[in-house]
Model the fold of this input.
Amino acid sequence: MNKKVKEVTLTAIKKSKKMNAIQKTLVLSLLIFSASCVSTKQFSEVQDKLRNYASENEQLKHGKMELEAANTELTSKNEQLSAQNRELSAQLEESLYKLNVEKQNVNVLEKESADLQRQMEMLNSGSSSEIEKLLEELLSARHDLNNREDKLRGAEKELEDRNAKLIELQNILAQKDQAVKDLKSKVVDALVGFNNNGLTVHEKNGKVYVSLDEKLLFKTGKWDIDPNGQNAIRELSKVLAQNTDINIMVEGHTDDVPMHGLGDVKDNWDLSVMRSTAVTKILTQNKQIDPKRIISAGRSEYLPLSPDKIAEARQMNRRTEIILTPKLDELLKLLELN
Done:
């Protein structure tokens, strides 16, 4: 090989950064071989080998790239398989848990089945008399239970009936209370002109009290009714005539000063009776009022409004009270039914 070929070859070795150690060794061998003044034919063979080596090197590079791509794909698939493995492991754990639960349920069922089997064996092993005794006890318990249920139903029915009657009673009482309030209002309206003249109207214990002072009706020790008092009683009788479901009690009251009279009126008892009777006769002048509705009574001095022994208290106690009470026929009938 001439000098120029050597220089070109050395320059190629220096510039080539991609030659591997084998290629560089071959080139150096070529130089050494050329230094020994090999023939042109031999040099051509060496060049052919170099070209073959270069071609193989390119093929190796291409194969390496394919291997790297395959490795990347395998890595991705490996990660997918790992994820699937984790999911399958979780599913396996869940399946094992469910299996354990089912096993426990099966164990419970087996235990219950064994208990039932033992009970059946005990029952089968017992004598017929024992079985009959158990059956009798069972029938007796059932009969007792049926009786208790019948009594309970009866008690419930009785309670329902009592509740219904109680509601009915409450309704009647409410009606009576309302009737008393309405009656009081009517009486007050009818006697409005006498309110400041010795007449008062108030409600107490489901009754309406019309209280008339002595000065409105009578002179001291007398039982003849003053004309102004007669007018008040007649106005009241109009209200009572319109309310036929009201009972009427007329009570005469005196003070505690003893009365010593002559004739038919000798004491406070006689005076209280005569005064109540006088008021009753004025009421019954209204033919729309049935006399059967009225009770006339004298209470003398024994129901005073004030126990004081002074003139003001004694004047307060000298009075006539007309007590109006709603008839309680419906209520009494309901109570009798109970």
The radius of gyration is 65 Å. The mean pLDDT is 80. The domain at 177-337 is CATH 3.30.1330.60 (60s Ribosomal Protein L30; Chain: A;).
